[in-house]
Amino acid sequence: MPSDNIPQTTGPADQAQPVDQADDAAPRELRIAYVAGVTPGKWIRRWEERMPDVPLQAFMSDDGAQLEVLRDGSADLSFVRLPVDREGFNVIPLYEEQPVVVAPKGHEISVFEEVALADLEQEAFLDVVALGGPGPALEVVASGVGLAILPMSVARHLNVKDTVARRLTGAAGTEIALVWPAESTDEVIEEFIGIVRGRTAQSSRQPSAQPVKTKKDPKPDRRGTGAKKAPKVAQRYAPNPDKGRGKGSRKKGKR
């Protein structure tokens, strides 16, 4: 995907670079997709502090395309809402979302701080997916046709006028996960995964914290170039010249 920050130059045909060489020269960048309700700002700020030489681009994707952005190469990683098809992908569950019930403004649930799902069995609930997603579903809720169950983060993000949302108990929650293609893992992706998982910049599991191994120069030979001396043989005791001679063994000279 071309970047607007990279100047485009043209020249004679004989000076043009081959496509593969141009691709190799292109700077590495990280592309992150996320569904509505996810706020990746804190992770992006940490990335910019640790990896200033690798630009990061983030964009929101629809729930229905949360994996398509990975399949078509638009994103390197994607924050998705589970469940998803995990075939061919690495998936790291991150956190659960609080469900809420959204009703038209003036509905009786507005007098409560939270509502139990069992107390709403007489209400008509909308099929959010069939209506085209949370946005269109909330517009229908505002018209007074029915209620909708959504993650709290999504309801707050959309904040549709003439609706009211309350915490919902007794309903299954949703879960946010980080997903990327299994065959596309590299040091840049591993660095971002570590940031999301809360690893510090000094963590031994962070690629950026790994020391660069340098080959040490050989130590100089300080033994000199002179002739080597023969090693001394240690003696247990000094030789005794009189050993083995008895008394009178010395010859006396003639007088």
What this model shows, in words?
By secondary structure, the chain is an alpha/beta fold. Among the domains are: 24-96 and 175-207, D-Maltodextrin-Binding Protein, domain 2 (3-Layer(aba) Sandwich); 99-169. It is 18% helix and 21% strand. The protein has 6 helices and 9 strands; from the N terminus they run H-E-H-E-H-E-E-E-E-H-E-H-E-E-H. It has helices spanning 19-25, 41-50, 68-71, 134-142, 152-158, 187-196; strands at residues 30-34, 56-60, 77-82, 89-97, 99-104, 114-116, 148-151, 163-169, 174-181. Strands 2-1-3-9-4 form a 5-stranded mixed β-sheet. Strands 6-8-5-7 form a 4-stranded mixed β-sheet. It is elongated and about 115 Å long. The model is unreliable at 1-23 (pLDDT under 50).
Straight-line distance between termini? 123 Å
Q: Report the principal-axis shape.
A: elongated
Q: Which residues form runs of ≥5 with pLDDT under 50?
A: 1-23
The neighbouring-strand order within the major sheet is 2-1-3-9-4
CATH topology of the domain at 24-96 and 175-207, what is it called?
D-Maltodextrin-Binding Protein, domain 2
The CATH homologous superfamily of the domain at 24-96 and 175-207 is called: Periplasmic binding protein-like II
By helix and strand content, what is the structural category? alpha/beta
Radius of gyration: 38 Å
The average pLDDT is 81
Number of helices: 6
Reported CATH architecture of the domain at 24-96 and 175-207: 3-Layer(aba) Sandwich
User: What is the CATH class of the domain at 24-96 and 175-207?
Assistant: Alpha Beta
**Counted beta strands:** 9
Q: Which percent bin holds the helix content?
A: 10-25%
Biggest sheet, open or closed, and with what strands and sense?
A: 5 strands, mixed
